């Protein structure tokens, strides 16, 4: 009888944990601003989970890309429909990754709190079997680098089907002329700013290719933690609240800049996502060894002047696009 009562209490406790995680994830998955802050706060409390800091810095880039679409240059280049589709591509990817990853982080936090691994509960949140096994191994061996790479691999596989291979986005985003032009001019760049106005980062071509996004993620992880610049990136993250406008870092450029894009929450309302569609497990026992291999790091990752030059190219392209659209 006592054993049955204990099991019932344990089941009740686990159900309370699941409910708590569901509620917290829903609240913090409100928009790009809340997601970025949630990742940052989690990393502050659990610095061994390096992916959380990486996710926060990449999420800042997603927010800046969103508000770029409301800036004067993209308004010249793209129609309202095109800009709305591009925004939804960023938003869906950002939302989907958070919906999958943040319950994992919270369940790890609960496991630490009660000093018991709870990773079997990840099934409830439709997390891949790949990550369930990775978390179990991490609990035992504490390999922070392995876990960070595993989370990079997982997040990019998670968005492949619902976002990248989504028929609507494939037809109206990834196969369009504007996407090909962005690809050609290397506009798909992730930058990590510093308080002295320097930008560091990497660019990716063919963003819709899974392996390219995984390699980009691994390079960005190296940049954050192994390039010798970690303290500069942490200082920026702690000093500059994420507003979703590139003026967050442009304000530190030596030359004076005016804010050309709006704050994210003034530009976009809350987006309603279809949470009733169950996420399918991307992992079917296939080998993942190729994704864990060390990546090659390009020699040049200080991008300040390069980035400014690309912005100038974007402005010229926008003017040409406006001219073309207006006949």
Task: Give a concise summary.
The protein contains 15 helices and two strands.
Question: Can you walk through the features of this model?
Answer:
The chain is mainly alpha-helical. It has one domain. It has a two-stranded antiparallel sheet with strand order 1-2. A hairpin with a 5-residue loop joins strand 1 and strand 2. Helix 2 packs parallel to helix 5 and helix 5 runs antiparallel to helix 7. The longest helix has 35 residues. The chain is globular and about 65 Å long. The termini are far apart. The mean pLDDT is 89.
Please give the structural blueprint:
Blueprint: H1 2-28, H2 32-45, H3 50-68, H4 72-77, H5 80-114, H6 129-141, H7 144-164, H8 167-174, H9 177-184, E1 189-193, E2 199-203, H10 210-226, H11 230-239, H12 247-250, H13 264-267, H14 289-292, H15 304-325
Antiparallel strand pairs: 1-2
Overview features:
single chain; 327 residues; mainly alpha; two-stranded antiparallel sheet; 15 helices; 2 strands; globular
